# Entry
Amino acid sequence: MGRVEGKVALVTGAASGLGRATSIRLAEEGAKVMVTDWEDKGGQETVDMIKNAGGEASYMHHDVSREEEWQAVLTKVIETYGQLDVLVNNAAVIIAKSIRDTTLKDWQWQNSIALDGVFLGVKHGAEVMGKSGGGSIINISSIAGIIGLDKSAAYCAAKGGVKLLTKAAAVEFARLKNGIRINSVHPGVIRTPGVDATIRKYGGSEKVKASFESMSPLGELGEPNDIANGVLYLASDESKYMTGSELVIDAGYSAG
# Structure
């Protein structure tokens, strides 16, 4: 316990799935957490879960593609907690279409959230974090940022962009000596509400579930806490010698 005691964290896209698990895990280990999302009901439920377990958290509506909302959220973080030590850029959407069926509007919407939103978080989050004495920025990419996935070109492009944005920012911040580290996390197939919905969409049978599980050499779906624990490590001082790194948590999917 207490691995991030005294730290203040901002987690985007935290109304469910990886964002919720990450927010709860950071709070369990002592962080005060600002939970943001554009799904207000789920976001508030995440905060309630943290508070009911004895942690400290707040919620704010947040469309990560809008620069003015980033500025408002970060202002609120400082007003509420006085500092920012950890930023988890988790919010994303996925368009699963062939290139032929992907419209320019699809492409731009995908990138506005999954890539532009991360850029805005890094840009404005680093400015605030620098005034707090530094900290850790963790960008949630994907195995789709490392390998190509069928009928997911827009998503792969966005997540690949997140990977290289992370590396470029890490080098820039390291040379500025502003105390900011930045790393990316690359989940494999994780059993989030979105993945469960996809399994149901294809019939929800054990055969369908097994086809998803077979996508990794370990033969099983990951759990949100598998990713949250990786984020916790990067948020903590245990990872003080890491920046510009890719933490791949995918049961060997991208190794095959």
User: Anything to note?
Assistant: The chain has one domain: 8-189+227-255. The first strand starts at residue 8 and ends at 11. The CA atoms of residues 1 and 29 lie 5 Å apart.
